[in-house]
Specification:
This protein is globular. The protein has a single domain, classed as Beta Barrel (Porin). Helix content is 0%, strand content 71%. It is mostly beta strands.
């Protein structure tokens, strides 16, 4: 969630999927946004493209001097385009994360649906460790391991080691699945 009045732009390439997020935070707990994604949908021979105006709601945040935890809900109508057809549906995601300056954990789930066309569920969990502690203005480095599950996908389970770098409002994540599929996540807040 970007800072109040801030905008976040995120681009992610994972296996054969591409996703772009644009969000504008209007309060500490609410950020409307626009999501574009291209992915394989169950029952479709070619990729489906989705455009999703949505809201990100920070349901709860817990802070201590050395730790933070968050619970988010994200949802919006989805407008899909497949090979020669268009259809409407929705998208919903929930995410919980917690971190200290040394350890990180995250779990999320999402569902994409278009009535009469498809339902696509996806789940992921991450654990991470910072090999050294750095300040907000310094380069922070995390070593992470992510496991993902997509019940209707050709490859249902993915395990992905990755490295996360961030400083101030820029985040870069690089990795690869154990099958050799590349992963790139770039996020900028301004």
């Amino acid at each position: 969630m970007p800072f109040v009045g801030g905008t976040a732009l995120t681009a992610q390439i994972a296996e054969a999927e591409k996703t772009f997020f644009l969000r504008q935070s209007i309060t500490r707990q609410l950020a409307p946004g626009l999501l574009w994604s291209e992915f394989a949908a169950p029952g479709h021979h070619a990729d489906v493209t989705a455009l999703v105006p949505h809201a990100v709601w920070l349901v709860q945040r817990w802070n201590t001097r050395t730790r933070q935890a968050n619970f988010y809900a994200l949802a919006g109508p989805a407008f899909y385009r497949g090979t020669g057809s268009s259809f409407d549906g929705g998208w919903f995601s929930a995410q919980a994360d917690a971190e200290s300056r040394r350890w990180y954990g995250m779990a999320k789930s999402a569902v994409w649906w278009a009535p009469g066309e498809f339902t696509r569920r996806e789940y992921a969990a991450r654990v991470g460790w910072a090999p050294w502690l750095a300040g907000f203005n310094d380069l922070n480095t995390w070593l992470m391991l992510e496991a993902g599950y997509k019940p209707a996908a050709a490859r249902t389970t993915t395990v992905r080691p990755l490295v996360r770098f961030y400083t101030r409002t820029v985040l870069v994540e690089l990795g690869s699945s154990l099958q050799g599929d590349p992963f790139l996540n770039l996020s900028f807040e301004f």
